[in-house]
UniProtKB/TrEMBL annotation:
Catalytic function, reaction form: 2 nitric oxide + NADH + 2 O2 = 2 nitrate + NAD(+) + H(+); 2 nitric oxide + NADPH + 2 O2 = 2 nitrate + NADP(+) + H(+)
Protein family: Belongs to the globin family. In the C-terminal section; belongs to the flavoprotein pyridine nucleotide cytochrome reductase family.
Pfam families: Globin (PF00042), NAD_binding_1 (PF00175)
CDD domains per record: flavohem_like_fad_nad_binding
Boundaries of every Globin domain copy: 1-137
Listed PROSITE patterns: FAD_FR (PS51384), GLOBIN (PS01033)
Signal peptide segment: none
First-level EC class: oxidoreductase
Protein name: nitric oxide dioxygenase
GO biological process: cellular response to nitrosative stress; nitric oxide catabolic process
Keyword Heme annotated: yes
Length: 372
């Protein structure tokens, strides 16, 4: 609960902070990385810092949390998503104080706020930080050295890695979760990226990597069978929920990885649930797990697949050429929808689902969450 005085000041200043949050976020990161360069080198995604998406995500999360406090609610789904991402990259409780120092300093400098207003936003920050620390305390933490025991070329730019702990037992993940992988780069940085689990195994972890960015390129070029990588425990709140209701698994591009993992779990358990799998890609050659999708759907009694290609090769149904369109896909209103793909895809799918009366929607986005 926000104190009454802070709530009053928050309501009065939220529009100004919201309007300047992009400038505040940029200044915050600049100052924090100047004082703690190791955070940019070994924790934060340098690519997302360079293109500004990390700043936008921070701005969105703070604005969403502050707005929720004023409305008497908290954005629980967003907080769970952030907590899982934090434990996957090794964020510690002590680092929240570092963020507080530079974030509040950036707010004060950009807006020249009074001490009272600064104290109110400090209260907001610590309410959010304490909530996240509490959530993170109960999530599996830590990293283990894993050995690459197999790798498969799915498409020209997607490789699947199968890894097993060098010491100890594998910590199995749930369908839909991801792992963080940390690798040493040529300049000495140890950058971290998240990759969704793309299959099920009792004694290994399987994840798939699209060639895109420093870590992904390193894994493609310098992680042969027999090499080792540092892998986190599986994390992520996009998991297949139990039940017998209908399910939609919708993806685009490499977003198919958590969906194929969920589909594999449904097939392995001979699920009687009605399952609709929808995927969009550029063409047949860029579609990872194309054969697996067809095979898994064929194993399920009540499953159907709908695949859309923007520029299909050879003969392809006209109604499935172009971007994914759920208009011709029959979906009961009690469907539970799971989505993964680029932000524009997520927004388009959510709008189409709501129009169809489907409201139980869960999603995963690769990179900073700009949808909240």
């Amino acid at each position: 609960m926000l104190s009454p005085k802070s709530a009053e000041l928050l309501e009065a200043t939220l529009p100004a902070v919201g309007a300047a949050i992009g400038e505040i976020s940029a200044l915050f990161y600049e100052r924090m990385f100047a004082e703690h360069p190791i955070l940019l080198r070994d924790v934060f995604n340098r690519g997302n810092q360079a293109n500004g998406t990390q700043s936008q995500a921070l701005a969105g999360s703070i604005a969403a949390f502050a707005t929720g406090l004023l409305a008497g609610r908290t954005p629980d789904a967003m907080l769970r998503r952030i907590a899982h991402k934090h434990v996957s990259v090794g964020v510690t409780p002590g680092q929240y104080a570092v963020v507080h120092k530079h974030l509040l300093g950036a707010i004060a400098d950009v807006l020249d706020v009074s001490a009272e207003v600064a104290a109110a936003w400090s209260e907001v920050y610590w309410l959010m930080a304490d909530t996240l620390i509490g959530l993170e305390r109960f999530l599996p933490q830590g990293q283990q050295e894993h050995r690459v025991i197999a790798r498969f070329q799915e498409t020209e730019d997607v490789v699947t890695f199968v890894v097993r702990p060098v010491d100890g037992q594998v910590r199995a993940g749930e369908p839909g979760q991801y792992v963080s992988v940390q690798v040493p780069l040529a300049d000495g940085a140890r950058q971290i990226r998240q990759y969704s689990l793309s299959g099920r195994s009792d004694d290994a972890l399987q994840f798939s990597v699209k060639r895109d960015g420093e870590v992904s390129n390193h894994l493609h070029d310098f992680a042969p069978v027999g090499s080792t990588v540092l892998v986190s425990h599986p994390a992520g709140d996009l998991t297949l929920q139990p039940g017998d209701g209908p399910v939609l698994l919708a993806s685009a591009g490499i977003g198919c990885t958590p969906m194929i993992s969920m589909l594999a779990e449904l097939a392995a358990t001979d699920s009687p649930r009605r399952v609709v799998a929808v995927h969009g890609d550029r063409d047949q050659l860029t579609h990872p797990f194309r054969a697996e999708l067809a095979q898994l759907v064929a194993k399920l009694e009540n499953a159907r697949a709908h695949v859309f290609y923007e520029r299909p090769i050879g003969d392809w149904p006209a109604e499935r050429t172009g971007l994914v369109d759920l208009g011709g896909v029959e979906l009961p209103q009690d469907t539970t929808a799971y989505l993964c793909g680029p932000v524009p895809f997520l927004r388009a799918m959510r709008a189409q689902l709501l129009e169809a009366g489907v409201t139980d929607i869960h999603y995963e986005v690769f990179g900073p969450d700009l949808t909240s």
